[in-house]
Design a protein that fits this description.
Length: 275
């Protein structure tokens, strides 16, 4: 009877919840092995100058090819890695691999462009981002002006003084700093004024299907004008259609990124864009 099986609450939830918890544990436990056994790899997506139409930057994006579960998107495992702290190891690996690859492209005589690496906000509070960056730049031989770090607005939530000090130090080395997914978090442009940021990446929710009549267009216009007045560039993310690209160009957005130009590509295919 019901009493022996436990109450209805458990009978109802157990079958649905357990596989989720099991999968989460499987992924979390698998992260360490993934790094040891080279299950991670990077794809690269170009950023295009909205003025010249040329490639002007490269974003590195992590991929996980799990031996049993197959492809796992970063939105699924990066949050787990952030929870457990293992993100520090992953960020270092991504940074090293992206720098190594960009240096190899440069040494092969391909176009020189800066490579952007997504760095968890956690790396700005804990651990030693400055040392990690210096060590890996030295190990790979890539010059700092060819490196950019993308951080989300979450970085403003805590220990703002340490964050500012770290960003200033990195800018001093010649590294660029971008605010990723701008407009979705809690920061404001006035907060950005305190930080030596190179550019803001407008979140793709502002770009999708946008037209001049759209309410969002006055917000986008204001963000771009303010960013420019603070000497920051603006990158539009998630540009998928020619209309979206025209809209961004008309508002003087500096760079465009999205499926319209290219999906993220494996290194061997990305090389052709640089050649
Ligand atoms: P993000 O840094 O904002 O990256 C942009 C995401 O949008 C990427 O998804 C990219 O593939 C996707 N995207 C690019 N163009 C378009 C487009 O035109 N339309 C649409 N619908 N999507 C587009 P992805 O690679 O799945 O990465 C998701 C997020 O995971 C990233 O967002 C970033 O926050 C995180 N992430 C990815 N790689 C890394 C990494 O190496 N380290 C860390 N810490 N986070 C990473
Ligand atoms: Mg990014
Ligand atoms: Mg983004
Ligand atoms: Mg994102």
């Amino acid at each position: 009877n019901a009493k022996e099986e436990g109450d209805g609450y458990f009978r109802y939830y157990k079958p649905n919840l357990l596989p989720l918890i099991a999968e989460k544990m499987q992924l979390e436990n698998g992260l360490y092995k993934a790094l040891q056994e080279n299950q991670f790899y990077l794809q690269y997506q170009p950023k295009m100058s909205s003025v010249t139409g040329e490639l002007c930057g490269i974003e590195a994006l992590i991929r996980w090819n799990h031996p049993e579960l197959g492809f796992i998107p970063p939105d699924k495992f990066i949050p787990l890695a952030e929870e457990s702290g293992f993100i520090m190891e992953i960020d270092r690996w991504v940074f090293r691999e992206a720098c190594r690859q960009n240096k190899a492209w440069q040494d092969a005589g391909l176009k020189r462009a800066s490579v952007s690496v997504n760095i968890s906000a956690r790396h700005f509070y804990q651990g030693n981002l400055k040392e990690m960056i210096t060590e890996e730049l030295q190990a790979t031989g890539l010059e700092p002006q060819y490196v950019s770090l993308e951080i989300t607005e979450g970085v403003f939530m805590r220990n703002i003084e340490k964050v500012i000090e770290t960003i200033q130090h990195l800018r001093g080395l010649g590294i660029q700093i971008s605010i990723d997914d701008f407009g979705t978090g809690y920061s404001s442009l006035s907060q950005l004024q305190r930080l030596p940021i190179s550019d803001v990446k407008l979140d793709r929710s502002f770009i999708r299907g946008i037209t001049i009549e759209d309410k969002r267009s006055s917000i986008v216009r204001a963000i771009i004008e303010l960013a420019h007045s603070m000497n920051m560039r603006v990158v539009a993310e998630g540009v998928e259609t020619p209309d979206e690209a025209d809209f961004c160009r008309n508002l003087n957005c500096d760079e465009l990124q999205g499926y319209l130009f290219s999906r993220p590509l494996p290194a061997s295919d990305f090389e052709k864009l640089l050649a």
